[in-house]
Design brief:
Blueprint (H helix, E strand, L loop, with lengths): L5 H10 L16 E3 L2 E5 L4 E12 L2 E13 L2 E16 L8 E11 L4 E12 L2 E11 L4 E5 L6 E3 L7
Antiparallel strand pairs: 1-3, 2-3, 3-4, 4-5, 5-6, 6-7, 7-8, 8-9, 8-10
């Protein structure tokens, strides 16, 4: 099921963050990764981390069973995280609560500014949440496409007075 109405705008504002409004220092911070094991291939530009992977860059954190980093011209171009579930977490701005995304797999295409969450995809901010089988977020355009797969897309938006 594709969300294309005003509800999507509410979801964008409440649940998801844009890279451009994430804490300003996040992009300039080094990436720290810990894992049970790592395998680096300089020729292909691929590094694979497995086992209790924790990746941090500023306020951004990824927790997963496996993380693959793909580099192009020395810079990270794509990050693939998998787990049951993998977790992406980031604070959008100083005055906003942390946003958490969960799914069996997440693909962050840095140049395209898209994050695709698949397999029991869920996004939470404060007490609001949004679920579907697949969620594609175009960060630079603030566009969300959610797909229910065999089920429906679900949303829970709490009254702001209840937080």
């Amino acid at each position: 099921m594709l969300i294309k109405n005003s509800v999507a705008l509410v979801i964008i504002g409440l649940l998801l963050t844009q890279q451009s409004v994430a804490l300003p220092t996040d992009r300039d911070q080094p990436i720290h990764i810990s894992a049970d094991s790592a395998q680096m291939n300089e020729q292909s530009g691929t590094t694979i981390y497995t086992g209790n992977v924790v990746m941090k860059q500023g306020s951004m954190e990824i927790h997963a069973a496996r993380v693959e980093l793909f580099r192009k011209d020395g810079d990270v171009s794509r990050i693939v995280a998998t787990g049951k579930p993998a977790n992406f977490r980031q604070q959008p701005t100083q005055d906003k609560p942390i946003t958490d995304a969960f799914g069996n797999s997440m693909v962050y295409e840095i140049a395209k500014q898209t994050v695709t969450i698949k397999g029991q995809a869920r996004v939470e901010q404060a007490r609001d949440n949004f679920t579907g089988e697949r969620i594609v977020y175009q960060m630079d355009k603030a566009v969300v496409n959610a797909y229910g797969g065999s089920g429906k897309v679900q949303m829970v938006i709490q009254p702001k007075g209840k937080q």
